[in-house]
Amino acid sequence: MPTVLAFIFMFGLLVFVHELGHLIFAKRAGMLAREFAIGFGPKIFSFMKNETLYTIRLLPIGGYVRVAGEDPEIVDLKPGHHIGLEFGQSGKVNRIIVNNKSKYPNARVIEVEHADLDHKLMIQGYELDEDEKLLFEVEPDAMFVMDEKETQIAPYDRQFASKTVSQRAMQLFAGPMMNFLLAIIIFYLLAMIQGVPSNDSTLGKLTEDGPAQEAGLQQGDKVTSVNGENVGTWVEFVEVLQGKPNETVELSIVRDGESLTVPVKTGVMERGGEEVGKIGVFQPKEKSFTTLATYGFTKTYEITTMILTNLGKLVTGQLSIDQLSGPVGIYNATDEVVSMSWANYMPWIAMLSINLGIINLVPLPALDGGRLLFVGVEAVRGKPIEPQKEAIVHFIGFALLMLLMIVVTWNDIQRLFL
């Protein structure tokens, strides 16, 4: 149960932050954000606020913000259509009923001759059995009703395509940007609470009844050598100790300006299938203003570089597709992280957040990076690619991504039983 709750919180947080970036910059640009969804598939929970439908869906494989103009949302009103119109206090149409008009007794039924709900916001037509042509102005936030389901119309200036290249690019980039920002914030908070790991060869907190404590070592002792082998950093100190499992080593230390030599019998732990030495000491931490202010950025940069390196190896074939993990693999890894230590949980979330940001910036169709690529091409050539062609590319890309997700998930499930 702790793993289930940890996974649900982690998944919800990562997707929420990512999609919140898209939503914020869509609204800032004046786009009509129709839906903010966490998950895909059937709705579990939903509510409407400020023109946007907020939903939680069944399948934990991502999320989305649906902006007006990206998908067909309402049917075109063609000449000859019989529709019902309801009017607001301004006298303009505030509800357009396409079918089941008998359920709206106050609706005024007309036969459409011409309608423009994108630019002029008007409907021309005739009342039934009348010859006089009538012109009706439409509210910019009027509702389009079909099968008793209401959808707000989206004038062209509320649609994604109407915005400038920079506004659209920022709206697409905002999701990954928020994932990087989340990681920076997490690392900053961890640094504030725990301190920043230092590479100095000074002993940090000692474990209860560990070899170091039993030998009389103290927190703050600075190690200068191990068995006469000089060490100047924490990494060097750990590497020497790990190579001496179950041995007595002589540590040369400096305590309060005095040089001492302390014999310590190392313990043993298993790592990567091998036995390595340990003495029960944590890495030292520091909380200087400079390290606290920069740690979130430097740690995020380090992990970003690592992920990009592995991504490059995947593209060049140095890493197999079997190394990828989907939701099942991430759940299993989360279980291992939580079972080892809850102290590793928040860094794990930060790393996954960075990973999500990077993957979404890969220039593949259906991902944010793929859509940014189309916006970039438009900026270079001075005109957009035909929406139908772009939609086909994204549809094919989405289908291939779903196929990849199935393959990766199958590999994850197989690994569980090996």
Automatic annotation (TrEMBL):
Q: Known PANTHER family for this protein?
A: MEMBRANE METALLOPROTEASE ARASP2, CHLOROPLASTIC-RELATED (PTHR42837:SF2), REGULATOR OF SIGMA-E PROTEASE RSEP (PTHR42837)
Query: What's the source species for this entry?
Result: Pontibacillus salipaludis
The GO biological-process annotations, alphabetized, read as: proteolysis
Q: Where found? A: Membrane
**What is the membrane topology listed in the Swiss-Prot or TrEMBL record?**
Multi-pass membrane protein
> What is the gene name?
rasP
**Which stretches make up the PDZ domain?**
187-257
Name of the protein: Zinc metalloprotease
Required cofactor names: Zn(2+)
> Where does this protein chiefly localize?
membrane
